[in-house]
Structures are given as C-alpha cells and as structure tokens.
Design goal:
The chain is built from twelve helices and no strands. It is about 65% helix and about 0% strand. The chain is mainly alpha-helical and about 220 residues long.
C-alpha cells in the first residue's frame, strides 16, 4: 500500500499542476510542448528524488514548497513496518501532526484517483474516523466538513455502498452505480479552488517543523 500511495499522490500532484495551468486538451489535441516537458521533468525528478530516513530541520528548511509534502510523506513511509497489517497501529503511534499528514495524503491520493468510494474500499479507509480531526488540525476546515458528511453517509448507507463489493474488480466497478458517495467527489475537487489543501499542509509543516524532525 505504501508504494501505491506514493505513486498515486505523485500522480494527483501532477494532475493538480495541469489543471491549475489553465490549459485544456481534447482527445484530438496533444499536450502543449511546455507541458510535456514539465511532466517529463517531474517524472524524472520523482524517480530520482532523495528519500530521507531521518528528517532534520535543515532538510525541511532547504526543501522547496513544491517538494516538501513528498519529502515528509516519504520519511513517514520509511517508518512503516514491512508488515502492512501493522500500518494502522504504526500510524497511530506517531504524534498528531505526523498522523495528519500521512492520513490526508492517503485521502487525497484515493479520492483524486477513484473518489470517496475507493478511499473507503481500500486500506486507507481504516483511517476515516480520524480524518476530520486531522483536517481540522492543519486548518483545512472545509475539507473537514466535507469528509465529515462523507463519513456519515458511508456509515448510514454502508449496506448499499458495499453490496456489490465482493472482492472482484467487476463488483467494485458496479459499486459506483447510484453510489451515495459520488456526490461528494466533485465537491472535493472543487474545494481546491477555495481551499488549497496542499498549500495548507505545507504551511502547517513549516510552522510545526519540530514535530516532523527526527534529530
């Protein structure tokens, strides 16, 4: 799951970068050359990025805003047990700021990839009860309110949401049909226009950097 979240989070960042550029394409158009180069450079930088098993104040201070979330998440991922069954236990053993960044990364990666339905379906969903407080902690109050409503719907409509989720790809795909969670997905994407979730996390890390350093 760790590797999947890292890749999904990177893809979500690239997509956000593209959507914020103001440029659009259709099936017959190619990406602008500048955008192609930007994506290619981003992919290469991602593949060759340094991963810090120990995070220092100096590393945080000298890391650009563009890369800071990735650096912190990579560091947190290095603290995970190789036994993914212990992911929940491991994350909850950290301080609240680290928990928040890890859980919010998981939420963003899943929802931007496959909506709230995918978030709750995958192992990331084990953190759903903690996410409202995590979002409030960093000051993302609109996302906290949205996730609170999604959580309530997930609990109330759980039999309907999960009725087709039998462990098969077909069952999971069918679970999107008339899913009461679908209405929250567009709201989640639109919220980035009024509440920049990634920048809020970056600002929070910088203001509370001692909570993230290892030495």
């Amino acid at each position: 799951m760790k590797r999947t979240l890292i890749i999904m989070g990177f893809i979500a960042t690239i997509l956000n970068l593209f959507s914020c550029s103001g440029q659009t394409t259709n099936d017959k158009d190619k990406l602008p050359k500048e955008m192609e180069e930007q994506i290619t450079n981003s992919v290469e930088a991602f593949k060759n990025r340094p991963i810090h098993k120990e995070l220092t104040e100096q590393i945080i201070d000298t890391t650009s805003d563009e890369n800071l979330l990735q650096v912190v998440f990579d560091n947190l991922s290095e603290k995970q047990s190789t036994d993914y069954e212990k992911e929940y236990e491991t994350v909850l053993s950290w301080n609240k700021p680290r928990q928040a960044i890890y859980m919010i990364w998981a939420l963003e990666a899943e929802v931007n990839n496959g909506g709230y339905n995918q978030f709750y379906f995958n192992s990331s969903g084990q953190f759903y009860k903690h996410l409202v407080d995590a979002l409030k902690l960093i000051g993302a109050n609109k996302f906290a309110d949205l996730t609170k409503r999604a959580n309530e719907t997930f609990e109330k409509e759980n039999p309907k949401i999960t009725q087709h989720q039998d462990g098969t790809l077909e069952g999971f795909s069918k679970s999107y049909d008339d899913n009461p969670l679908n209405k929250y997905d567009d709201e989640f994407y639109d919220l980035y226009k009024t509440e920049n979730l990634q920048q809020i996390q970056i600002d929070y890390i910088r203001k509370n950097k001692k909570e993230f350093i290892d030495k």
